[in-house]
Structures are given as C-alpha cells and as structure tokens.
Design brief:
Number of helices of chain A: 0
Number of strands of chain A: 11
Oligomer: heterodimer
Helix content of chain A: under 10%
Shape of chain B: globular
Order of helices and strands of chain A: EEEEEEEEEEE
Strand content of chain A: over 45%
Structural class of chain B: mainly beta
Order of helices and strands of chain B: EEEEEEEEEEE
Radius of gyration of chain B: 13 Å
Shape of chain A: globular
Helix content of chain B: under 10%
Strand content of chain B: over 45%
Largest sheet of chain B: 7 strands, mixed
Low-confidence stretches of chain A: none
C-alpha cells in the first residue's frame, strides 16, 4: 500500500531564504507526482506536475525534482517571500488504471518578514 | 483561466440530514473526483467518475454517498443521513485526461452538528 510522507511537518524561515521541502513514497510504481499549495481553510492549488519519466519541473521560483527509484521528490523554493506561507502537499498517482491521488500530510511553511 | 467551482463554500447541517455538495468542473475535462480532508488529516480519495459512471471508489464511499452528473456542467456529491464524522472539507477535482494535471476547487467545508 502506497504511503506518502512529508518532512519536515513545519518550517519557519526568514524572508529571502532558499528552502527545500521533502516528499517520500514507499511504492515507486507511480505515474506522476503533483505538488500543491493550500492556504489555511482554503482549496488546493496545483503548483507542479512531474511525470514519472521526468526528473524535474520548474515554475518561476519553484523547482520540483523526482527520483522515482528512491521514492523521493523535493520542492525547492528560491528567495522565499512572506506570500509563500502556506501548507505544501505532495500527491502521487499510481501507475495503471488507478487514477486516484495519494497524499502526504503536508509541510506547513511560515516565511517571516 | 478556467477553474473548478464549488458551492456552497460552507454548509452547516444537523446530524441525520442529507446534503448535496455541488461542483462545476472545467468545461472540457472528462474525469471528475471527490476528495475530503478531515481537519488535521491527510486528503482522502472518495470517488472518481468518468463517462457518466463511477470508475473507482474508496472504502469511505459507502451507501451513504452518491455522485451524479445531472447535466453537462454540474457534478454533485450527495451525503445521506449525515454523521458528526462527516464533518470535513470536501474537494472536487477534474482532469482532461487521467495522466494530466488535476485541478481542484476551493472546497466546501461541511460541518455536521
């Protein structure tokens, strides 16, 4: 059974720092991995989607990498800003007909001005 | 930019009542999903829907739950005889194809009292 774990659970950094959020999964037979942002009490905003054949994806200050064989993904945030404060979730989609996403618990990020 | 829309944003209902949560997926998307997130817990898959039928459902999605696409635009989740433990944020999502990015709505916060 696929398990997705995110560390750290919470992170507090000063503005301007570069930071790395980690996501690990126990079953490497994934089809893709998606990173989301969730603001308190709000919805899920898709940040990046990495297909299993890809190593990384970039969008602005965000860079996500994927090492499928070791069951790891990282989300790198460059030059963090207070507006980046949110919970960051990763979710994997298994290979095959199973189309559902399996989620981590998230990393709660606070960027302090 | 196209988005998934959910209504209402917050619903309070008495235990034992029926509720209908509504979603308007992105117009050209073909695959639809409901997930829920109990406060402080992981996002959980409930059901996926394609070609006017359920394609997969989780153990949570028992006879208390049903989904419907009553017309070409709406996708609804009905919860019958609500229980206190049904209190959660319910998210609707849609995709164009099974392996493309999933887009989520802002969620409906259901509170059962």
């Amino acid at each position: 059974k696929q398990e997705v774990t995110q560390i750290p659970a919470a992170l507090s950094v000063p503005e301007g720092e570069n930071l790395v959020l980690n996501c690990s999964f126990t079953d490497s037979a994934i089809y893709n991995l998606q990173w989301f942002r969730q603001d308190p009490g709000k919805g899920l905003t898709s940040l990046l989607l990495i297909q299993s054949s890809q190593r990384e994806q970039t969008s602005g200050r965000l860079n996500a990498s994927l090492d499928k064989s070791s069951g790891r993904s990282t989300l790198y945030i460059a030059a963090s800003q207070p507006g980046d404060s949110a919970t960051y979730l990763c979710a994997v989609r298994m290979a095959g007909n199973n189309r559902k996403l399996i989620w981590g618990l998230g990393t709660s990020l606070a960027v302090n001005p | 930019e196209p988005e998934v829309t959910q209504t209402p944003s917050h619903q309070v209902t008495q235990m034992g009542q029926e509720v209908i949560l509504r979603c308007v997926p992105i117009s050209n998307h073909l695959y639809f999903y409901w997930y829920r997130q109990i406060l402080g817990q992981k996002v959980e898959f409930l059901v996926s829907f394609y070609n006017n039928e359920i394609s997969e459902k989780s153990e949570i999605f028992d006879d208390q739950f049903s989904v419907e696409r009553p017309d070409g635009s709406n996708f609804t989740l009905k919860i019958r005889s609500t229980k206190l433990e049904d209190s959660a944020m319910y998210f609707c999502a849609s995709r164009l194809h099974p392996n493309t990015e999933a887009f989520f709505g802002q969620g409906t916060r259901l509170t059962v009292v």
